[in-house]
Amino acid sequence: MADKPSKSHGRLAVRPTLKPTELMTERPDLAGAWKVKIVTLFPETFPGVLGSSLTGKALQDGLWQLETIELRGFGIGKHKDVDAKPAGGGAGLVLKPDVVGPAMEQARRGTPVNPKAWPVIYMSPRGKPFTQEMAQNFAKAEGMTVLCGRFEGVDERVLEEYNIQEVSIGDFVLTGGEIAAQAMIDATVRLLPNVLGNADSTVEESFSNGLLEHPQYTKPTEWKGRKIPEVLQSGHHGKVDAWRREQSEKITKERRPDLWAAHLDKED
Ligand code: SAH
Known about the structure:
The protein is an alpha/beta fold.
């Protein structure tokens, strides 16, 4: 029997775990650290890209923490079903409210009810477009809960019941909310105190003042016959600032007439 190949031989195995996720968190809650709870069918996709570079170091240093809550553990019946056909017919599958609901309730345990202190978000192409301003607000919260959809999305009643806000990362459709969640969390975590080496970089970058950033250059001063603009080498801070501002305005005007119009409105 022992050498008989298993039924799943040669297939990629997906092994749902029934272990309560609370037992899987590696460390106890770090007092005061910003925390994100992710409700997902695919917890193995986290921390993903957030585990690298500055966000990864900050995670290791305990400046923020991440807990995944696996939807499959709340699945129903022998097969741990999490989805079913859309009511009214049509293509695909919808995540069941009696599966997503209990997962959201687990996530809610021990978190503030005030959505400013603890936003509860569903990643969704129908959501409010994610912006730098939203990242700034999320970073000011104690933490947040993020629900990642799959298939055709989640049953609408779950969104109503738990007062979940929908957030989109752009006008396109992904297969799941995990990449969107990671993009949103990355933009938020880098605004937390002490995550970036240089806090000024979040003050001067694109969107923080309603404009896109000016071009950036670094050594060597000449590359493939292209020189760094003279003014940047002048050492004259006033002139450098004026040049950057001018470039920033020019680029915003050309590429993002929507941002430019909003900027002009604000100045009035
Ligand atoms: N049927 C849905 C799309 C489902 S895509 C519709 O037409 O609106 C599957 C999941 O991917 C969604 O539940 C959502 O969590 C995620 N997703 C897809 N595109 C996204 C986007 N632009 N922003 C955020 N999440 C997205």
